[in-house]
TrEMBL record:
The keyword Transport applies. This is Peptide/nickel transport system ATP-binding protein. Residues 14-263 form the ABC transporter domain. Belongs to the ABC transporter superfamily. Signal peptide: none annotated. It comes from the Bacteria. Keywords: ATP-binding, Nucleotide-binding, Transport. GO terms for molecular function: ATP binding.
Length: 267
């Protein structure tokens, strides 16, 4: 039986991925040959302290590295298709339809002068999910309702600053899931929120992805949260994966000194 499980084909496969940022002193490598898989329907968490390379990994996958960042080695495949060599148009299509991305900083990814409804609708239209004005509007309301936003229809004309942090995060998760992607990458989706709101939103995200069998790459600095939410945990430190395994194993029987330290520091 275990043989069959190992034969399953990964949805996302990262091999020996290195990323560097161009600085005045030259290239500074911040990811040093990272490898891991995400299987269909699996939730995988990447944990590690600030600066360990979590966001760099996430943005490299969707080709949204900050301006001076570049993949210097390795491969990223989604269902066997190499993503690092796609052109801009091709990767945009992948990002819209196959991979939903919830970036770490919601305010830098929502335009303050556009209404929430307009931004969600534009994302939907750009991805070709709904053609035509009426269809796009209907899908916008549906996406926001599914994301758990009360009175979604009334809120379409509101601007990001009129939303609470939790509501903005719900809107972004809704946008990430609008195209029913195979993979949702959520970078610290609830870190800015208080624990109660965090729980409600993560529960909601989990129910949406469970229903659809969506794989999730959940990025968080919170080991407790990762253990609670993920099937598998990847521990990063200084741009390397120091340990990876089933969540329970990481929590109950950590091997690497860094993981042991994280576990003992977790509340
Ligand atoms: P995490 O998400 O785990 O907090 P990051 O992936 O954001 O970590 O950062 C990993 C490393 O890459 C850090 O050393 C950080 O300083 C560096 N880094 C991140 N973004 C940039 C950038 N735009 N330019 C230069 N270095 C960066
Ligand atoms: Mg980060």
């Amino acid at each position: 039986m275990s043989e069959r499980i190992t034969e399953q084909v990964p949805l996302l496969s990262i091999r020996d991925l290195s990323v560097a940022f161009r600085t005045q002193e030259g290239l500074r490598e911040v990811l040093h040959g990272v490898s891991f898989d995400v299987m269909p329907g699996e939730t995988v968490a990447i944990v590690g302290e600030s600066g360990s390379g979590k966001s760099t990994t996430a943005t490299a996958i969707v080709n949204l590295l900050p301006g001076t960042g570049e993949v210097t080695a390795g491969s990223i495949t989604l269902e066997g298709r190499e993503l690092t060599t796609l052109n801009r148009r091709e990767i945009e299509a992948v990002r819209g339809r196959d991979i939903g991305f919830v970036p770490q900083d919601p305010m830098s990814n929502l335009n303050p002068v556009w209404s929430i409804g307009f931004q969600v609708k534009e994302a939907i239209r750009a991805n070709g999910i709904a053609q035509g004005r009426e269809a796009a509007k209907a899908r916008t309301v549906e996406v926001l309702q599914q994301a758990g936003l009360a009175d979604a229809e009334k809120r379409l004309h509101q601007f990001p600053h009129q939303f609470s942090g939790g509501m903005r995060q719900r809107a972004l998760i809704g946008m990430g899931l609008a195209a029913d992607p195979k993979l949702l990458i959520a970078d610290e989706p609830t870190s800015a929120l208080d624990v109660t709101v965090q729980r409600v939103i993560l529960d909601h995200m989990a129910s949406l992805t469970r229903d659809k069998g969506t794989s999730v790459l959940l990025i968080t600095h919170d080991l407790g949260l990762a253990a609670e939410r993920a099937d598998k945990i990847i521990v990063m430190n200084g741009g390397n994966i120091v340990e990876a395994g089933p969540s329970r194993q990481i929590l109950e029987d950590p091997q690497h000194p860094y993981t042991k330290r994280l576990v003992s520091a977790a509340p």
